[in-house]
Specification:
heterodimer; A: alpha+beta; two-stranded antiparallel ribbon; 3 helices; 17% strand; B: 395 residues; mainly beta; Adenovirus Type 2 Hexon, domain 4; Jelly Rolls; five-stranded antiparallel β-sheet
């Protein structure tokens, strides 16, 4: 409103009330891909990755085994050196 | 051919016929109106309240309330008049409009102090009134047309009327309720020209115990009240109804803060937020001593600092002591409002509102700092804030 007699001109108030009907982001949310997600887990800058490699070299790849018994029947399976 | 309807429009949340906002054209074409909305009527009683529905006409700018009548003291006993007498016979003026429940909520003395701060033609002109048993010509905040404490022994705050009893005394007071923030440009005025409009003024009467400590004989009150409205017609210019800028509501709301101690008391203002501009703060500190509600005079003896602040500790304006603020207030209001009634005023609007009014969106934790030299006995502060609020946000 440009009238010299408007509330905006006389008191510096906002001439239009803030809208409560639409949601607006309070700030722009930027995402830095370099330090988030899976990329960071396998990054050479991540000490956890080197710790993982160290465990792999000393303990070896672990195997997984399991079985289910239902009455007289038994179902089982294994992967790796179980 | 299908009948066409004029488009529906909302002004201040009320459905209205199609109108054009053009303040300059409105001022030239409107007509000022003054009409009674309540003729003199007996009050429902001290400690009770009277609701008044305002007629649905035009753009409402102000309400003028007159309270008059008599109080009879039956026998010559030491009836002690307290400091809520006479202005706070009205404990609270409550104005609600169109679902905005708390546009105005202030005591009688705050309404009078506000009028002194906004009406440049008004000052107390050395009108003599008895206060605490002595004649005072400065700081009474009285109009000559007010009737209270006219002579020694009349009911006057902080005094006994035993000497002159039994007598029937006259009381006459008038108040201007500032519906619009600006009676000239009508910013903050209320749109009343709609059947959907509902503007109500509730006058809450103080209790007798707050006004007077009655001796052995009961007092007989016979008070009446009358309300006039000042409104402006909505003119039709070139086939269009024209209104001024009605995007704002005007609020004058007051609250009480207890627990005051010596030195800085930081009293936060409630309801700060986006879309609100602070125009004035009015405060009064009272203590309970011999006469309840005794106002703490705004001077260097009682106040070692007055300031307002926001955020962490941003304090744009500071007065070194109460006397410094009282001196400024006397220049602003034409009345030594801090002398007898202990009123303090921080005015952001009278000189140049566009420059000085406080944007409450950018001042979080807005507060007034009352630095008291000593902890008042059972003391409490009454703080009023005058705000312009965007209509969709409202009260």
């Amino acid at each position: 409103m440009t009238s010299p007699f408007s509330a905006e001109s006389l008191y510096g108030v906002a001439s239009i009330a803030p809208s409560m009907g639409t949601a607006a982001p309070t700030q722009v949310m930027g995402v830095d891909s370099s330090d988030s997600g899976v990329g960071w887990l396998i990054s050479p800058h991540n000490p956890l990755m080197w710790f993982g490699l160290f465990l792999l070299a000393t303990v070896g790849a672990a195997g997984v085994a399991g079985s289910v018994r239902l009455g007289p029947a038994k179902v089982g399976g294994s992967v790796g050196k179980a | 051919m299908a009948k066409t309807q004029s488009p529906v429009q909302f002004i201040q949340g009320v459905q209205s016929p199609n109108m054009v906002i053009n303040p300059a054209v409105f001022y030239a074409a409107t007509r000022r109106m003054r009409f009674p909305v309540k003729s003199a009527t007996a009050i429902s009683g001290l400690g009770s309240s009277d609701p008044v529905e305002i007629r649905k006409t035009g753009i409402l700018s102000a309400l003028v309330v007159r309270v008059t009548g008599t109080v009879a003291v039956a026998t010559a006993d030491p009836t002690a008049w307290l400091y809520d007498y006479p202005y706070n016979i009205v404990k609270e003026f409550r104005l609600s409009a169109n679902g905005q429940s708390n546009l105005q909520s202030a005591r009688g003395i705050t309404i009078r102090a506000h009028e002194l701060s906004t009406n440049p033609k008004l000052n107390d002109r050395g009108v003599s009134r008895y206060y605490a048993g002595a004649a005072k010509t400065q700081g009474t905040m009285a109009l000559d047309s007010d009737v209270w404490g006219d002579a020694s022994g009349d009911p006057n705050p902080g005094a006994s009327s035993g000497a002159h009893a039994p007598t029937t005394y006259t009381v006459d007071l008038s108040y201007v309720i500032p519906v619009a923030a600006d009676p000239k440009y009508l910013v903050g005025a209320l749109f009343g020209q709609s059947s959907a409009t509902n503007i109500n003024l509730e006058i809450v009467w103080n209790t007798e115990a707050a006004l007077v400590t009655v001796g052995s004989a009961a007092l007989t009150w016979a008070l009446t009240y009358a309300v006039d409205a000042v409104a402006y017609s909505i003119p039709q210019v070139g086939g269009q109804f024209v209104v001024p800028d009605l995007t704002q509501f005007h609020q004058l709301t007051e609250f009480r803060q207890g627990g005051l101690t010596a030195n800085d008391n930081e009293i936060k203002l409630p309801g700060t937020g986006v879309g609100r501009k602070l125009l004035r703060m009015i405060f009064q500190v009272s203590r309970t001593s011999t006469y309840a509600g005794n106002p703490l005079a705004v001077n260097a003896t009682n106040y070692n600092k007055v300031a307002w602040a926001y955020g962490g500790n941003d304090s744009p304006e500071t007065w070194a002591n109460g006397t410094r603020l009282a001196q400024q207030n006397e220049r602003e209001t034409g009345c030594h409002i801090g002398k007898l009634w202990g009123i303090g005023l921080i005015d952001f609007a009278s000189e140049f509102a566009l420059r000085d009014a406080i944007d409450m969106a950018a001042t979080s934790d807005l507060r007034v700092i009352l630095g008291l030299a000593a902890s008042p006995t059972a003391g409490y502060a009454q703080v009023a804030q005058e705000v312009l609020a965007a209509t969709a946000v409202g009260a």
